[in-house]
Amino acid sequence: MKEDKRRINEDYEDAESGLCELDRAKIYKGLVGLYVDESLITYIDGMNGKLYYRGYPLSELCENSTFEEVAYLLIHGKLPSNSEFSEFKDLLIKERNIPDNIVSILKSFPRNTTRIELLRTAISALSLYDPDDYDYTEPANIRKGLRIVAKMPTLLAFAHRIQTNLPLVEPSENLSHSANYYYMMTSNIPSKDFEEAFDDILICHADHSINSSTFSCRVTVSTLSDIYSGITSAIGTLRGPLHGGANEAVMKYMINEIKKKELVIPWAEKKLERKEKIMGFGHRVYKTWDPRAKILRGISMDFLKKSQNGELIDKIPTKEHDIHDKVDYIIEMTEILSDYIIKTKNIYPNVDLYSAGLLHTLGIPTASFTPLFAASRSSGWVAHAIEQLNDNKLIRPRLRYIGNLDKKYVKIGER
Ligand code: COA
């Protein structure tokens, strides 16, 4: 039997957790370093800069797999057989459309609404049209989860075309998840180069264990709320610049503040002098190179070589990208910055530093960076929601109250 370390004044919750007063006295601000549960989904080796989905190294998945297969792996816990995979892909294709009412909602939003707010609201609204809305069984949760994964790129492409006053392009039934996104954004089919690079970006963002947005998702479903609510919470959490919003912040300082290779170091020196954080660096778990940053860096360098050799890179055409007479190659500036911060601060680049430059190279509008991160991470969120519900325990920590007690209420007219 477990030793009973309770003190007489401790309540039932503490009796259940088995924590002694000494353990309870400690505050884990930001929950740094704490395990909240066990998981079979993702392993991050923060000291050696390695990442595994369901035990498979990320580098191997980027090399050999596709986003659709990785989504299957995360959600179902194993690689699919041929027939399981074709059924899964067909399902995703079938679910790419979004209801007309949601299109009307997208059209009704103020034109300056950020695309991540738009995505958050649209996902929440989609639940109202889901035929499984009030079915909370695991098969229904998987069906709902797949609908979310399938529809996110359509929502983003539609939002983009509405905001830029272009006619909508309905999803294709013959293209991969990655190629179809390009198609809906441009009405053209992308080159293999674009498709493969974009697919790798999606794979790199598909899951990352209990990061802040996944934690939000797990907290929400742990109350036995629904999976749409879990993912809506997660999108709201992802939005912040300390999490998924960092990639947009990186792009903004590169094109609006730094602009030229020779200005990278003076810019960084000033930021550090003022003790400001530089977005795209540092990580709660990695104490070395983020393996996702390494993979995206490799792809970015290949594209840079191609550009320098005069080869054309297939990209989504946006006005935002007509800046290259005023701004140097992002990847070259990124390399200088990365080198400088590692040497001076021993802080390493994270995925957002390199995804920003690569997404920009592919012509993705900056406003879509964080929503695309969400589109990919939705596969991980679904996997985590299902895992949480499989062996659920309400996630409800404690907060130590440090204010005064028994204050005397003074009537408003007498204050
Ligand atoms: N730029 C400059 N200094 C940084 C830094 C950055 N991007 N990231 C961490 N540091 C410094 C902090 O200032 C702190 O220094 P101090 O001990 O002298 O005060 C130290 O490194 C530890 O940072 P801290 O913020 O406490 O670590 P954390 O684990 O709470 O934070 C992040 C992790 C991701 C929130 C943090 O690194 C950050 O804010 N990075 C920028 C945002 C970003 O890129 N987010 C995407 C993550 S994938």
Which class of secondary structure composition applies to the elements?
Answer: mainly alpha
Give the helix level as a range of percent: 40-55%
Sheet with most strands: strand arrangement:
1-2-3
**SS field, number of helical segments:** 18
Low-confidence stretches: 1-12
- Strand tally is 3
Q: Give the mean pLDDT.
A: 92
Order of helices and strands: HHEEEHHHHHHHHHHHHHHHH
Index terms:
415 residues, single chain, 54% helix, binds coenzyme A, 2% strand, disordered N terminus, three-stranded antiparallel sheet, mainly alpha
How would you explain this protein's 3D organization?
The chain contains 18 helices and 3 strands. It is mainly α and 415 residues long. The protein is globular, with a radius of gyration of 23 Å. Helices cover 54% and strands 2% of the residues. α10 crosses α18. A 3-stranded antiparallel beta sheet has the order 1-2-3. It has helices at residues 12-17, 21-25, 58-64, 67-76, 82-94, 100-108, 115-126, 138-163, 177-186, 192-205, 212-222, 227-238, 246-258, 264-273, 291-308, 330-345, 351-361, 369-390, and strands spanning 42-45, 50-53, 56-57. Bound molecules: coenzyme A.
